[in-house]
Structure formats: C-alpha cells, structure tokens
Amino acid sequence: MALIAQTHLQYIIEIAVILQLAVIFILNLAPLGLNLIMLVAMVVALGFALMFGVDALFLFIPGFSHSEFTHPYGPLALLAVVTIMAAIPIMKKSGINTRSLQIYMWGIIIFITIAGGLMHRSFLLLWIFGLFIGFFIISKSFRQKSVFTVKRVAMVVIIALAGFGALELLSRVLDMSVLSPLLRLSRIENYATASLDMVIKNTTLTGHQLGSCYWGDACMGGSDGYISLPIALITLFGLPFPLFYGLLVTKKDVIDYMLPGIFGVAFDFGYIFLVFLLGWFILVMYLGFRMLRSYRKRRENGDKTCLGREALLIGSLTAFIAQGTMGLFLMNRSINGTALLTFLLLSALVVGHVVLIKKK
C-alpha cells in the first residue's frame, strides 16, 4: 500500500499532513469567537498547570515516579498562556474590566514557572524565552509601547540566574541531583563531544553511514528511530519501525539528550531533510507574521470577526517559535517523541490561518 509509511520519516510527514488538514477544517468550521478562545485557553492553561504541579510534587514524594510532562506539553501550556495574554488587550479596548483575568494569568504563569522549572531547566528556558516572544508580538500587534527595556531585560536575567542558583542550592540541601542545573551542564561537557563527533563523521545527505547507529548490522542508514513520533502512536498501527523503548531509551540519549535538534535530524534523516526543516521553520514564521498583519489591519478597520483567531495565532506562533528554537538549537528532546507531535500541531495551527474560507 502506497499510503502506508515505510519509515519514521514517511510516518512523520503523513501525520503532519493529516494534522494540517484537520486544523484547517477546525479553524474554518468551529465558531472561534474571542470568548470561546479565551475560555478554552484558560481551561487548558489551568489543566497544564495542575499537571506540571502534580508531576513536580512527585519529585519529593518517595515511591512516586515523575513523568516529565514539561517536555511534550510545555509548548502547549505556553500557547494557552500567551493566547490569554493576547486576548486581554482586545477585551480592554472593548471596555471590559480585565483585572481578574490578569490576576488569573499571572497566577498561572508564576505557578508554571516554579513547577516546570523544578522539573526541567530546559523547560524554564523555553518558558521564559516564549513569554518574551509573546510580549514582543503582542506589543507589535496592538501597537503598544515596547516591553523590552534595559531594566526589564536585566531584571529577567537576574531572576533567571537566581532561579537556577536556587535550584542548585535546593538540590544540594535535599541531596536531589535531579534538581541540579550544574549536573546537566557537566553531563553535556562529558558526553556531548563524543556525540557530536559521531554525528559529524557519519551523517550523509539522506541519513547516516550504515552500521554507525546503535543497531549495528541492522542499521538502515536513516530513520533508525533517533527522531520519531510517540511510541504509542507507532505501535497502535503495528508499524515495523526500529524503536528505542524501555531501557533502550537511554541508548538514543547520545543524540536526544546531548545535542541540539539540528544534529539529531541530520543524523537520522540527512542533511537534505535538515535544510527542508529549517526552511519550513522559517516559512511558518513568515506566514504567521504575515497573517498577524492581516488580522491587525482588519481589526483596526473595525472588523471584529477574527479577534479570536488573532489571539489564537499569537499564542500558536509564539509557542512554535519557542519550541522550534529550543529544540533545533539547544536540545533535541524538545522536538522528539510526543514533543514532535506537539511541534507538528503548533505548525499546523499557524499555517492553518492562511486558509480562511469566507462564510456567506
């Protein structure tokens, strides 16, 4: 069957196409009013806040294991929060008292910052970076005074450094190495060089040298499972792809944990697909900002039919940029597995706005 994926890469592309078509239909058929978008964003943000909070709590309770939800779902939490942030200025201009909404929003932001930061330092970077992007896009979309001042940037840097310092201190006081930011840095220092050397020496235009991956003689020279969708989504259809599961998950950490995504993508899918992915990343951002300009023009001309779509696009674009940047240029795990599915969804949510069916 021609439509049945034969490799991880084919399966990823097929899922991306399906998600894109589904999002286009939803964006055009669902009544995406500002009130509905705001309500859904508030519920989703609260849900992820509770999820991250419980997961962080399990770090301190013996006998419970944590699930690290921040990697796959952190960008979706960012999407929800920034969507709320984008909806508030619109409501203000309509004369609605948004004080309670702002208190709710900042409460969620602070809670997720603490809970998510306890779970993963890479999430904390994504979260802070994403909030900065969100504030920037919102200020430009609503022609507000720039939020980026020397004082504010310095304050955020100081808070971030203080947060990392507090985590390191907490890890030593409680004797919990899992909380230590320095442990992560030391692991990268010890192992990243070998991982980078393996990738650079063996990567080809379409994958990697046969026998250079973990599978040895069974290595296919590409799509060997270093970059994949969630295992459950693969086994659901019984697809015979090479998978790192169970204890084998640690075997792909040589790339997944130690290197930025550009190296992981290049090693498993080749330089050609890496160029395509980077081009797609840039194209999605371009389309997103172009649609935001279109929405702003319509809003300023008195058209209120796209207010909900505009807020959703700001949230989606922010989360897409933040996750893509962190995943491609900092840590491969941020765009792998379930996080890859999230990345494809965010991409679809941005590009889906390009297709706007006029309703009579």
From TrEMBL:
Highest taxon, organism lineage: Archaea
Entry keyword set: Membrane, Transmembrane, Transmembrane helix
TM stretches of this protein: 12-30, 36-61, 73-91, 124-142, 154-174, 226-249, 269-289, 310-331, 337-357
Name this protein carries in UniProt: Uncharacterized protein
